[in-house]
Amino acid sequence: MDFLKSGLKTVLGAPEPGQQPSGADTVERLVERVNNSTLLEDRRDACRALKAMSRKYRVEVGAQGMHTLQQCLELDRADNETINYCLDTLNNIMSPTQFEEEEENPNVPMNIGEQFTEMFIKNHQNIQLVLDLLDEYDFRVRFSAVQLLTSLLTNRTKDIQEIILVKPMGVSKMMDLLADTREVIRNETLLLLIKLTKGNANIQKIVAFENAFDRLFEIVSSEGYSDGGIIVEDCLLLMLNLLKNNSSNINFFKEGSFIQKMLPMFNTPDEEEVGWSPQKVSNVHCMLQIVRTLVSPSNSAQIISSCQKIMKNCGLLDSLCNILMASGVPADILTETINAVGEGVRGEAAAQRALGAVLAPSNPPRPAIVVLLMSMVNEKQPFSLRCAVLYCFQCYLYHNETSQASLVQTLLPSSTDVSSLTSGQLLCGGLFSSDVLSNWFSSVALMHALIDNNAQKEQLLRVLLATNIGSSPVSLLHQCTVLLQQSTKLQSKVALLMLLSQWMSNCPPAVSAFLRAPGAVGYLVTQTCSNEHDENEYLLQGMSAFLLAICIHFNDDSVDNYSKDSLKQLLVKRIGMETFSAKLSEVSRHEAYSRAAKHPQLKVKAASDILIDYEFCKLFKGLESVLIQSLTVVQTNGDTEEDTESLAQYKSLIRQQDARLHELLQQLAAETQRGHKLQAALTDATSENSRLKDENTLLKAQLSTAASIQPAPSVDANIQLEYQQKVSALTDEVNRLSAVNHAANEELARTKKDQDDLLELLADQDSKLNEYKMRLLSLGQPVEEDLPTEAEQSLA
Amino acid sequence: MAYAYLFKYIIIGDTGVGKSCLLLQFTDKRFQPVHDLTIGVEFGARMITIDGKQIKLQIWDTAGQEAFRSITRSYYRGAAGALLVYDITRRDTFNHLTTWLEDARQHSNSNMVIMLIGNKSDLESRREVKKEEGEAFAREHGLVFMETSAKTAANVEEAFINTAKEIYEKIQEGVFDINNEANGIKIGPQHSTGGGAGASAGAGGAAGGGCC
Ligand SMILES: Nc1nc2c(ncn2[C@@H]2O[C@H](COP(=O)(O)OP(=O)(O)O)[C@@H](O)[C@H]2O)c(=O)[nH]1
Ligand SMILES: [Mg+2]
């Protein structure tokens, strides 16, 4: 930091006499006073003044004063007021936000706070200094220290997290502050902990270990749960940080019975007038996020299932369902509750059953599931709500043959009660609606009733639809093929192709039914052969190819014209194997595919982005290579000759792949090496960069101070430079000489003092000697010259 | 679910001595020959009974590598018990015990109960550290000692439960300040009414009682 100061000095020169001192001058003098003054009051006053200037002159105070302020934290530790000023000044310098005072000043770089932070943390000891100050009970010191740490974390989250993690008791110290009885400190600590725990699993675990969940629930309950203020929200945000992607902490949360403690959060108000304040919406929203984090499909199956069981058994699921059916719930809370209920039951039979049994308070009472599906196929409902219902319904069907069966059951002719509205009817209505989103949602919902469930695939074949009065009913599958051929909308076509793929895979009767439907095969062949160039067209071509391959692979030769072999020949002749594989591979290349494959829940922003479903991706991934293989196997009946031939084929394939593998391994090794080199280069570049940044900050500071100085009267620049060099050389010489002088003076003083001491000692010895002589004489002993020496020897 | 006491444990020792396997054997009663290297710290829990009282054990299994040492240190202060583990087939893990012990003593509260464990006792043929040596080390440093096998489950229950017994006795003797959670001990919801643990535990009891 010293180079900064000396750098500034050469630019500043001495202040011109009779001129108003600039901000930079004042800062410089203040910093000097903090440095040199031996009086505590003086240093304190200077720190107070620096604090006052640190907003408007943050560059100057930071560039000149940072080192001094750091020292002050160490040396004036005993004076809380000074420490408080120091901390506040540092906090201003490194503040991540721009001050009003500096809005007009173009010399202040945007990320100045970050740059100073980087300089500050270069010495890890500085963080330790601030951490140590957290132990100080004094309000101002503790408060400012917490704020400073928050700023530092905001600017350089990862770096500070790593530094704090290796400081003994670093995290624990901050946790202790949550118990501070002064609410202001407690609240400020919450903000600090939110920053501290963001994305760092190790810190999250320590914070949880230090009883964070207990503390947080105490605060949440004392503040009145969801009716509490922003503090409740802060507590919940911190909990969310601790749990997100942290299975160890989720486990701890579950084992510590904290799921049960969330219950009062979802108490629906008895009287409706209580209403939903914006804060309450935020609070409940956070709490729903916590619920979803516990049972998120990305967690391990074991964790999900045990959390779901607890939620159901402790009544949390019921509470959520109550919100679902309550009136006056804001739309985004409702949406998030639907998502949470979905994930709360996904794959857990007992919970799914419970959801199936929930009745809406309508007249007549209807199952909640039916009411939800009504919203899904209702164009007037918000898009995100409709997506949530689909997701919830998918979760309700997930890994549950009973709920899948009961859905299909509502469509079968045997279904007795014609008067009441059923899930199946709603979905069929949606399938044939003019609203394309309803088509999509309904197809996908129906598709989920068939996943891994061959019995229902066959049951669904029995479903008949009355299309026009008078004409004979047609099967649902037949009607789907008709729609597929008629539809002009991409989303509807994709949805139907997904439904049919799911339906017909592993189900030869469904394949037969499809092959018998007029025009169906022709349509698929035409689509696959289509030559249009557009990523959505590619997708349609690929999905048609996929369905065609399903028709071949799961074909039981029960339809005369379309036996396995004849379809294969058709494919080879009309499309060609290579084209076919190429088209098939287009499916997984589509952006919507990779987006959908990531997570069971749809992640789309706009209704127009909706295209592919997660479960279709799974189906496709599982079948793609199987289908291609079954097509490439030689067509005629396999006798031994064929077998050896295909064996040879496989062998050569393996050899090829082996060679390819080898090649890739070599490439990998080369890439790894390259990576290492790049890493090294990057490290170099980073350190160089950081050095340049420091220099840059210095130059900026110099620039801004230089700007405030009158230009020197027209002296030739060269001469000026020469003079400057001379002056600086002379100054150096003077400095050196005065240092020599100083050292010599000190040496002299020391020698003098030694001499005095010796003289004193000598005088003392002399008088003692005389005394002894006198005593000896009085005892009548002869006095010899070497007496003291003997005394010494006897002592030794 | 209701418990009389809750104790926090940590498991420490060189990497590869079987800490994670011991925890898994204790919580899930199974042995996993190929276990992932622990990164940082992992949590596990189980309920046990001592003296007719339900005691909940919360256990943090730590990573043994030097790189995680400073993270591990954050857990000493709040733990009531520590299992210090070495591998009887690897002398170096026994030699490192002094370092571990110093670290633990320096950063923990003085009442923390430390149990010394020589693990992999099933591998008798590859033994490098005699049982007597373990006993001697334990005696010298005032630790409880036991040889275990996470594979056969021999002595695993005992190791965790005896540590708990030791802590429980210290509580009975009044050595532990049970109202200070920083010691790694919590009183269960049902106990709190008479004691000084305050409203928080009571509230937990109300919520927990209704649902489990
Ligand atoms: N034979 C035997 N092997 C064990 C025993 N405990 C652990 N292991 C093995 O030792 C290795 C390291 O175990 P692990 O629990 O990951 O050690 P950690 O690093 O201390 O957590 C694994 O391969 C285990 O299978 C034991 O009691 N007997
Ligand atoms: Mg481990």
TrEMBL record, chain A:
Where would you find this protein in the cell?
Cytoplasm; Endomembrane system; Golgi apparatus
Q: Which UniProt keywords apply?
A: Coiled coil, Cytoplasm, Golgi apparatus, Membrane, Repeat
Which positions are tagged coiled coil? 647-702, 727-754
Q: Does the keyword Nucleus apply?
A: no
Which one Pfam family would you cite for this protein?
Uso1_p115_C
- Residue ranges occupied by any Uso1/p115-like vesicle tethering protein C-terminal domain in the UniProt entry: 684-790
- List the PANTHER family: GENERAL VESICULAR TRANSPORT FACTOR P115
Its name, as the record gives it, is: General vesicular transport factor p115
UniProtKB/TrEMBL annotation, chain B:
UniProt xrefs under CDD domains: Rab2 (cd01866)
Q: Where is the signal peptide?
A: none
- Output the Gene3D superfamilies linked to this UniProt entry: P-loop containing nucleotide triphosphate hydrolases
This protein's source sits in the domain of life called Eukaryota
Alphabetized SUPFAM superfamilies for the sequence: P-loop containing nucleoside triphosphate hydrolases
Which protein family is named in the record?
A: Belongs to the small GTPase superfamily. Rab family.
Protein name, per record: Ras- protein Rab-2A
Tell me what organism the protein belongs to. Answer: Plutella xylostella
